[in-house]
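I have a small job for you when you get a moment. Would you make up a two-line entry for one protein for me to read? No commentary is needed, just the two lines. Write everything out right here, beneath this request.
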Amino acid sequence: MKAWIAGAALALAAAPGAASAQDGAKLDCISGAASPELKAALGTAMAGSADKAGYDSLFGRFSEVVDSCAAEHGIGDEFKAEYFNYGLARIARDWLTGEIAKASLSTGPVDKALDFGIDGTNPDLANDMNEDQIMAIVAAYQEAGVDVEAVDQAVWEKVGAYAAATSLYWSNRRKLTP
C-alpha cells in the first residue's frame, strides 16, 4: 500500500512538469520549424516594411508551418487561430528584439513599462497604444539612460511594433496554456 501511495504521489508531482514540457514543445514548435528566411520575412511584414504583394504567399508558407505544428501537438481547430497568432507574434517579437538591439537598445524598458511577462498584466494593444502607454515607454527608456531624442524614428516604429507583437504574443499564449 505504501508503494502504491508513493507511486501515486510521484505521478501527481510529475504531472505538472510533464504538462509544462508539452506546453513548451507546443509553444516552441512554430518558431523552431520556421526557416530563418521565413522568420525575417514575417518580422519585416509585421514591422510594416514588406512588399504587400507577397503577403499571400508569405502567410501561406507560414500557415503550412502552423498546420504542421498544430497536427504534431494536437491543436484542435478551435485553437488554430490563437496558435497562428501566437506563432506569428512570437516570430515578429523575436525578430523585432534583434532589430531593436542593432540600435543598441533593449526591449526590457517596453516590457517593464507595459507590464509584459508571465505574471504581468499584458495590456491588449489591439486598438493601438494610448498616450499614457507611449509616455510610459519613453520614460522607461529615459530611466534606462537612453537619450530618447537621439533614437531614430525608424527604431521607435520598431519599438511600437514590438509592443503590439508582445501584446498579441501574451494574449494568445494565455489562451493556449490555461
